[in-house]
Specification:
Layout: E1 2-3, E2 6-7, H1 10-25, H2 27-92, H3 97-128
Antiparallel strand pairs: 1-2
């Protein structure tokens, strides 16, 4: 057989096969390979745990900042909305403050009297209702 321009004899191939067989079946070699795999797997596991912990810490920090910003944004929006509403109300008010208070007072009085009329009508209707002889009377 010829490999890379050199012809190997059957004896050399047999020696190569026996050497490979000894290497493959040697317990010390397998033990060393297993130890290296275990060490590298442990190291890789440590790296993964470290990166995972770091990622979780960064995520928690960002979530905390985002929650603080959300709270502050909501308060700012509320205050800005109140300011805009008050400003528009003052600019578009049809009368003076005394006139608006009087109109509001009259409106509340009218609503109060309407509610009183509805309540008295309901009690009058209730007193006019007669028992029908249904079960329980």
């Amino acid at each position: 057989m010829r490999i890379l321009g050199r012809r190997y004899s059957a004896k050399e191939w047999a020696r190569l096969a026996m050497t490979f067989g000894l290497l493959v079946t040697d317990a010390e070699i397998w033990s060393a390979i297993n130890d290296q795999f275990r060490q590298r797997a442990d190291h890789l596991g440590d790296l993964i745990r470290h990166e995972s912990d770091r990622t979780i810490a960064v995520r928690n920090q960002r979530m905390g900042l985002r929650q603080n910003r959300d709270w502050m944004a909501r308060i700012t929006s509320l205050l800005a909305g109140m300011g805009v509403g008050i400003g528009v109300g003052v600019l578009l008010a049809p009368g003076s403050g005394n006139e608006l208070r009087a109109a509001l007072r009259n409106r509340v009085t009218a609503v109060k009297s309407n509610v009183g009329n509805v309540a008295s009508g309901a009690t009058q209707f209730r007193s006019e209702a007669r028992p029908t002889g249904a079960v329980g009377d």
